[in-house]
Automatic annotation (TrEMBL), chains A, B:
Name of the protein in question: Allantoate amidohydrolase
Domain of life: Bacteria
Molecular function in Gene Ontology: hydrolase activity, acting on carbon-nitrogen (but not peptide) bonds, in linear amidines; metal ion binding
Co-factor note (free text): Binds 2 Zn(2+) ions per subunit.
Binding site residues for Zn(2+) 1: 81, 92, 192
Cofactor(s) it depends on: Zn(2+)
Keywords of this entry: Hydrolase, Metal-binding, Zinc
NCBIfam families the UniProt entry points to: hydantase, PRK09290.1-4
Residues that bind Zn(2+) 2: 92, 127, 375
Organism annotation: Glycomyces terrestris
Family the entry assigns: Belongs to the peptidase M20 family.
Residues that bind allantoate: 214, 272, 285
Amino acid sequence: MDAAGFRRLWDQIAPIGRADSGGYLRFSWSEADLALRAWFDAQAAERGLRTETDRNGNRYAHWDPEPGAAADGRAVLTGSHFDSVPHGGAYDGPLGIVSALLAVDELRAAGFTPARPVVIGAFTEEEGGRFGVPCLGSRLMAGAIDPDRARALTDADGTTFAEAMRAAGADPDALGPDPDRLAATAAFVELHVEQGRALDAPVGVASAIWPHGRWRMDFTGAGDHAGTTRLPDRRDPMLTFAFAVLAARKEARLAGGLATVGRVEAVPNATNAIASRVTAWLDARAPDEAVLAAILAGFESKVCERAARDGTGFAIAPESATPIVEFDAALRDRLADLLGGAPVLPTGAGHDAGVLAAHVPTAMLFVRNPTGVSHAPGEAASDEDCAAGVDALAAVLRELAC
Amino acid sequence: MDAAGFRRLWDQIAPIGRADSGGYLRFSWSEADLALRAWFDAQAAERGLRTETDRNGNRYAHWDPEPGAAADGRAVLTGSHFDSVPHGGAYDGPLGIVSALLAVDELRAAGFTPARPVVIGAFTEEEGGRFGVPCLGSRLMAGAIDPDRARALTDADGTTFAEAMRAAGADPDALGPDPDRLAATAAFVELHVEQGRALDAPVGVASAIWPHGRWRMDFTGAGDHAGTTRLPDRRDPMLTFAFAVLAARKEARLAGGLATVGRVEAVPNATNAIASRVTAWLDARAPDEAVLAAILAGFESKVCERAARDGTGFAIAPESATPIVEFDAALRDRLADLLGGAPVLPTGAGHDAGVLAAHVPTAMLFVRNPTGVSHAPGEAASDEDCAAGVDALAAVLRELAC
């Protein structure tokens, strides 16, 4: 398809949830999310696609085959997610959904009729940007998280996932594994903007997702007056936290992985008070699990040592941990061939495709990102590359839906 | 007076603004602050004291002398503030106001009639806990802050000081210097809980307030995806911030002062995003101004160096800076003698007394704090010591209001 055709549909969602920063605030079940879901429904209706929401709040549009089609009835699932990290980029998630709608148009314009259902999915809370656990919709579907835990997850205002779902008219009591849906899916292909600078062609195919996880860290000490407490009398958790930020970076650098502290909350968070508690989150990833474990072990032991020196408490607990995902090798090679020898590359970013890959043959297509920036307003993809992504996804759906 | 008498009045305000932490949320112009002001008015009315609010939102109760009293008409001002830091202790501020009310009772019970007005003041926004600038009410009175700047100060929700004042029924257009009030004040004596472990008698007299200030620090970098951005490609302001926290402590330790980072805000503050910006506040204090300047200079140069290595931006700007305050030596010695040789000690904490000392002969009385904790729920003072504080304040008011 041409770049202008991509741009026309893309522009329809560009204003939804856009902040002054140029980034997006599209949290699950927020007004922006509901506007995007309504837009998705309208697009599906325009195309005569049947829509439904599954028990976990994931939304689908079905392009059903003609009655009596030859295949086994199992669907080809594509799509991605609408939700964003706070002030995230435009492409991360929505590109996969918009591209899927355009790929359907392209296949129809070419006279293609699928032999099996082609389903476009919009997954819930992929980023964990509101409730803290990424890929929540796909994890629930795959039985990878306890529904009670999911219902009780809270956002920054204390609203639970269950309450947010219910306020949006969905039923949180229904949350839970969906093995029938997984069994009825022949393959899942998620198209996504590339999130680093690793892809130097318009479109690539994913090989693997690095093992990764997030850990909550609690640094505890003694709140006190910043102007009157002698330094030797202090038990200041901000010091231990600061050490931990630098230690995480150092351990990751030495081991050849990634570690990031991007989120921190101090209590009481007052200029003239020594903090009584600092809570922060560690994001760590590595090419393999041994490296990730080495980073974590080195980090924990160094921070514990420092906490003992600072007289503070340090506790670290995983909030999510995802082992390495190697995408289906046969499918990966088939798609790379189909796309004329597209580059095959791994990613450090988690995706619903990474969760579903344990249950369904799964592949990912990446669209080039010229800035390499993601999870920030500078995230980018050219209209030309996005159009090439639509063409590639159409070719893949045609191949898999025969 | 006896401890039980102190406790009876003290218990009346104990529940107002108390949080689950055991600390207090008594921000200026909040519901809790207005409840405390209403309580103050009721106490004044019970004692037949005339109340007024000055142009800067500071509230007063006047014990006027008999007509034809001998003195020159200038008042003896006492009192303190009701507002707290977030989750601050019970005593910091309110102790000075409650003690003043009880001291009036004690003087009256002893048949004393003042020769000059005795005025109990409740100053606005002493902590800067809501609008960031400490001693705001006294600074405005003293002409030490531009009223336009004060009106425009915002709280965490973006509400301005002017809006908060207006919502509470006060007039922010009137803010400004109050030289007539200062000229009509013969002396100011603020009673306050001691905020360290420096006082080993029930009551002491202040010698000086250390020079101190708060600086806003902005660390800027490039927001990006925590899972896909190579370490060498990052410009992560959280690293520079972490270095700064440790550097501030080190510089203060080497120079013999205090430095604290207790407040931090990261943007976008997401677990899986490298921060694009971290804003934090430095609180620094020292026994003299040369030491404070040395701490700041060492700190700035080391953080600038680190920011260059991290590829981040670092900007630091003072939000308030208070030179050393030496309280009126004659008044200090007179009070220490009057109180039977009470200990004389400096403090690192700022107070309205520190601001007004430039304009009015000013003294402070400290009440012993057995935990040494302040700006946190663990702040303490025994009822016996508080009662001794009331006796001391009554003796001082009797001495000064003759």
